[in-house]
Amino acid sequence: MSSVNQIKYIKESLPAKKALEEEAKQLVSEAVSLEDEEFHPESFTTTDASVRAVLVYRKGADGAVRVTSSGTQDFWNVRTGPEEAGWAIIGVKVEQTCMFLGKPKVRLFKALES
After folding, report:
1. What is the C-alpha to C-alpha distance for residues 83 and 65, in angstroms, rounded to an integer?
2. Do residues 67 and 75 touch, judged by C-beta distance below 8 A?
3. Do 104 and 80 contact (CB within 8 A), yes or no?
4. Is the pLDDT at 90 greater than 50, yes or no?
5. Residue 18 contacts by C-beta under 8 Å, 6 or more apart in sequence?
6. Which of 7, 34, 49, 89 gives the lowest tally of CB atoms within 10 Å of its CB?
7. Dihedral angle at the C-alpha atoms of 92, 45, 107, 35, nearest 10 degrees?
8. pLDDT digits (tens, 9 = 90+) for 48-65
9. pTM of the predicted model, to two decimals?
10. HEC profile of the chain
11. Hey, what CATH topology would domain 7-111 get?
Protein backbone atom coordinates (compact mmCIF):
# COMPACT_ATOMS: atom_id res chain seq x y z
CA MET A 1 0.00 0.00 0.00
CA SER A 2 1.16 3.51 -0.78
CA SER A 3 2.17 6.04 1.84
CA VAL A 4 -0.29 8.56 0.28
CA ASN A 5 -3.62 8.05 2.03
CA GLN A 6 -6.67 7.89 -0.23
CA ILE A 7 -9.08 6.57 2.39
CA LYS A 8 -11.09 8.53 4.98
CA TYR A 9 -12.83 6.35 7.59
CA ILE A 10 -16.09 7.56 9.17
CA LYS A 11 -16.94 5.76 12.40
CA GLU A 12 -19.79 7.62 14.13
CA SER A 13 -22.70 8.91 12.06
CA LEU A 14 -22.79 9.60 8.34
CA PRO A 15 -22.29 13.34 7.69
CA ALA A 16 -24.52 15.40 5.40
CA LYS A 17 -23.98 15.24 1.63
CA LYS A 18 -22.03 18.54 1.42
CA ALA A 19 -19.64 17.44 4.20
CA LEU A 20 -19.07 14.10 2.43
CA GLU A 21 -18.35 15.92 -0.84
CA GLU A 22 -15.81 18.11 0.97
CA GLU A 23 -14.07 15.03 2.46
CA ALA A 24 -13.88 13.43 -1.00
CA LYS A 25 -12.53 16.68 -2.47
CA GLN A 26 -9.70 16.61 0.10
CA LEU A 27 -8.78 13.07 -0.99
CA VAL A 28 -8.72 13.69 -4.75
CA SER A 29 -7.97 17.45 -4.95
CA GLU A 30 -10.99 17.98 -7.19
CA ALA A 31 -14.59 19.13 -6.71
CA VAL A 32 -17.05 16.24 -6.77
CA SER A 33 -20.77 15.57 -6.51
CA LEU A 34 -22.17 12.64 -4.50
CA GLU A 35 -24.79 10.59 -6.33
CA ASP A 36 -27.99 9.88 -4.35
CA GLU A 37 -28.31 6.25 -5.46
CA GLU A 38 -27.00 3.47 -3.19
CA PHE A 39 -26.28 0.23 -5.03
CA HIS A 40 -24.47 -3.11 -4.95
CA PRO A 41 -22.22 -3.28 -8.04
CA GLU A 42 -21.45 -6.65 -9.57
CA SER A 43 -18.22 -8.28 -8.43
CA PHE A 44 -15.14 -7.63 -10.58
CA THR A 45 -16.67 -4.57 -12.25
CA THR A 46 -14.90 -1.21 -12.39
CA THR A 47 -16.05 2.40 -12.27
CA ASP A 48 -16.15 4.64 -15.30
CA ALA A 49 -13.77 7.57 -15.79
CA SER A 50 -16.17 10.11 -14.23
CA VAL A 51 -15.93 8.52 -10.75
CA ARG A 52 -13.46 10.29 -8.44
CA ALA A 53 -14.35 8.64 -5.10
CA VAL A 54 -16.61 5.97 -3.63
CA LEU A 55 -18.60 6.07 -0.39
CA VAL A 56 -18.41 2.53 0.99
CA TYR A 57 -20.94 1.19 3.52
CA ARG A 58 -18.62 -1.08 5.49
CA LYS A 59 -21.26 -3.10 7.41
CA GLY A 60 -23.09 -5.43 5.02
CA ALA A 61 -22.32 -8.17 2.57
CA ASP A 62 -18.77 -9.49 2.31
CA GLY A 63 -16.75 -7.61 -0.26
CA ALA A 64 -14.27 -4.84 -0.91
CA VAL A 65 -13.63 -1.72 -2.94
CA ARG A 66 -10.07 -1.57 -4.29
CA VAL A 67 -8.23 1.24 -6.05
CA THR A 68 -5.04 0.50 -7.96
CA SER A 69 -2.49 2.63 -9.82
CA SER A 70 -1.30 1.59 -13.26
CA GLY A 71 2.36 0.67 -13.44
CA THR A 72 2.87 0.50 -9.65
CA GLN A 73 2.12 -1.88 -6.83
CA ASP A 74 0.22 0.82 -4.92
CA PHE A 75 -3.33 -0.04 -3.89
CA TRP A 76 -5.99 1.04 -1.39
CA ASN A 77 -8.61 -1.39 -0.13
CA VAL A 78 -11.78 -1.01 1.97
CA ARG A 79 -13.34 -4.26 3.23
CA THR A 80 -17.04 -4.75 3.82
CA GLY A 81 -18.84 -7.45 5.78
CA PRO A 82 -21.18 -8.19 8.67
CA GLU A 83 -18.39 -7.67 11.22
CA GLU A 84 -17.31 -4.26 9.82
CA ALA A 85 -18.72 -0.91 10.98
CA GLY A 86 -19.04 2.64 9.72
CA TRP A 87 -18.29 4.01 6.29
CA ALA A 88 -15.27 4.96 4.22
CA ILE A 89 -14.55 7.28 1.34
CA ILE A 90 -11.93 5.94 -1.04
CA GLY A 91 -10.45 8.35 -3.58
CA VAL A 92 -9.99 7.45 -7.24
CA LYS A 93 -7.55 9.67 -9.10
CA VAL A 94 -7.56 10.07 -12.88
CA GLU A 95 -4.84 7.51 -13.59
CA GLN A 96 -6.30 4.90 -11.21
CA THR A 97 -8.78 2.02 -11.47
CA CYS A 98 -11.52 1.25 -8.93
CA MET A 99 -12.83 -2.33 -8.75
CA PHE A 100 -15.63 -3.87 -6.72
CA LEU A 101 -15.17 -7.33 -5.18
CA GLY A 102 -18.05 -9.31 -3.68
CA LYS A 103 -21.20 -7.24 -3.07
CA PRO A 104 -20.29 -3.96 -1.32
CA LYS A 105 -22.95 -1.28 -0.92
CA VAL A 106 -21.71 2.03 -2.33
CA ARG A 107 -22.51 5.54 -3.56
CA LEU A 108 -20.37 7.27 -6.17
CA PHE A 109 -18.72 10.69 -6.18
CA LYS A 110 -18.43 12.00 -9.72
CA ALA A 111 -16.26 14.77 -11.13
CA LEU A 112 -18.08 18.07 -11.61
CA GLU A 113 -18.31 18.97 -15.26
CA SER A 114 -16.50 22.17 -16.16
Report:
1. 16
2. yes
3. yes
4. yes
5. none
6. 49
7. 80
8. 999 999 999 999 999 999
9. 0.94
10. CCCCCCEEEECCCCCCHHHHHHHHHHHHCCCEEECCCCECCCCCEECCCCEEEEEEECECCCEEEEEEECCCCCEEEEEEECCCCCEEEEECCCCEEEEEEECCEEEEEEECCC
11. Jelly Rolls (2.60.120)
